[in-house]
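note to self: dont lose this again. the chain is below, predicted strucutre after it. 35 aa total, dont forget to put it in the shared folder this time
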Amino acid sequence: MYKITDIKTFKIFIKINKEESNIESAMNTTYKDIF
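---
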């Protein structure tokens, strides 16, 4: 599990990536970009 410190950003990210079939993969990429 990831430690989400910015819940608003996380929720927005999920909304943007609803079309993604692999959310985990998208999350890994986004995490690298954000942090």
